[in-house]
Design brief:
This protein has helices at about 1-25, 30-40, 60-70, 75-100, 105-115, 120-125, 130-145, 155-170, 175-180. By secondary structure, it is an all-alpha fold.
Length: about 180
Amino acid sequence: PQHTKFITITLGIIATVYFASIFTRQIVNDDYMAIYTAWLKGLGQIGGKDFNLDSYSIIMDLLVPIVMIFPDGLGSLYAARLIYFILIGIVAFLIYRLGTLLFNARVGIWSVILVLITTPMVARGLDLRPDMIICIGWLGLFTLFIDKDNFFKPAKLLLASFLLILVTACKFKAIIVAGP
């Protein structure tokens, strides 16, 4: 009971820090590029033709509706970061699931806590980059592959295919890992 209370309080503090960061952290170049590119695409412009596109990710296309709903001010940035907050929750769930499948629930929960308090996650987890979606894709695939008895069921194969396509669509160079 005392252990459960400590973990609940710890996860609550971590979630509060991440949620507060949605509204208080600085705007980094990735945020600016994603929002600005989505805004240009929302206006009907084409990357590489109407404006320079240094690095493409499907994130820009997914952000277009958000930027069109909140075209002025920081509303689109906050809404996108809120989505990334949810994505961090999905990453945490998948890490817990992997830890539980490979070891036990205690390892799963401590793995989540340790990942969420690392500097890269705290400092860059809410940046509008494809990394979080790619991470979800790979963790999801690992979770599916570990369950080798049920992996070849059609629904699991379809989900694995979707996750691999998602990873590739976020950043084509991610396919380098899947190729072998």
